Amino acid sequence: MKIRAAVLEEFGKPLVVQDLELDPPKEGEVLVQLKACGVCHTDMYTASGVDPSGYAPCVLGHEGAGVVAEVGPGVTSLQQGDHVVTLFSPECRECVNCKSGKTNICLKIRAQQGQGYLPDGTTRLSRGDERIRHFMGCSTFAEATVMPEVALAKVDKSASFDAICLLACGATTGIAAALWKAEVEQGSSVAVFGAGMVGLGAVAGAKLRGAETIVAVDMSEQRLELAKQFGATHTILASSGDPVEQIVDMTDGFGADYTFEATGNVAVMGQAVEAARMGWGLCTVLGVAGRGEKLEIIPRFLITGRKVQGGSFGGAKGRTHVPQLVDMYVRGELELDGFVSHRISLDEVNKGFDLMHHQDGIRSVIQFS
Hints:
This protein has 369 residues and is α/β, with parallel strands linked by helices. The chain has two domains: 2-168 and 336-367, Medium-chain alcohol dehydrogenases, catalytic domain (Quinone Oxidoreductase, Chain A, domain 1, Alpha-Beta Complex); 173-312, Rossmann fold (3-Layer(aba) Sandwich), CATH 3.40.50. The chain has twelve helices and 18 strands. It has helices at residues 41-48, 96-100, 110-113, 161-164, 170-181, 197-208, 221-230, 243-250, 266-274, 299-303, 318-330, 349-357, and strands at 2-8, 16-22, 29-38, 58-59, 63-71, 83-86, 125-127, 130-132, 144-148, 152-155, 189-193, 213-218, 234-237, 258-261, 282-285, 307-310, 340-344, 363-367. α7 (221-230) links the parallel β12 and β13 (234-237).
């Protein structure tokens, strides 16, 4: 079928919206008609050419939500008409990692996914005789996409596509980190470094868990105001002085029970470790640092009881946890609409990158007719 998609033709250049051919789904695959897609920093990072693992040409995009239009042979968990959220982090429930119950990092399609292919080592996208590669197994900057069944979360049909597409990456990363990775305790203290999409998600998740003190740290006063709307009880403008000292002062002189880093800056990661409470403070690193960068931690911080963990996709198991988050949104327990700051068309995808570059709003969402 013919679709319109935003193609990364050359690193550092604007994406080009054009017609492509999308092949039907094969064994274990699903054709999804996209309805909404968030424009994420990861897409912009790859388009810039800074990402050493990037490749072109490819169709970017991974924060998608839509409707199942067709299922391939062997698909059992989805059928035509189902509403789904795309998952760059799949959940096959069969590989050694999934069966372990210890991690959300599924191995089922990982090798081919990282190379821009579907599990059988081929693509479903083409332009004449030229094959076009997929991105993160998703390629949602397009009117439709073909994805593995294990990388799609079936969700409540009553939920707004504009809102739930954010659960495909950014929002879930922060929310799930607080709910299920760190398991923030009721009445505890929390500090979140970075008030972008992921950081605000961590703030919202900490509020859901009943944290008493939630401190948001950011360079932007506008984002700190948003953090208050999502549950922050205190805010710190990062340029106003040492945030670690201020967090310690706000938490009875001990530091926060839980800290979350959502900037990708290794210096800020170090602050998040230091701001964690001596004795049992847990720091969860969510931001993605540049290739080759290293996080320096003073050993005494660990010896005196602080712990550090990572949280890809916030530790969420996509097909299990994303539907739960959608249900919470539908019930009015989880605010997602406030994350959407701009609604744009596919033809305006490069505007989405520009808005992100200028830190204008939290998330731009592409709407498909």
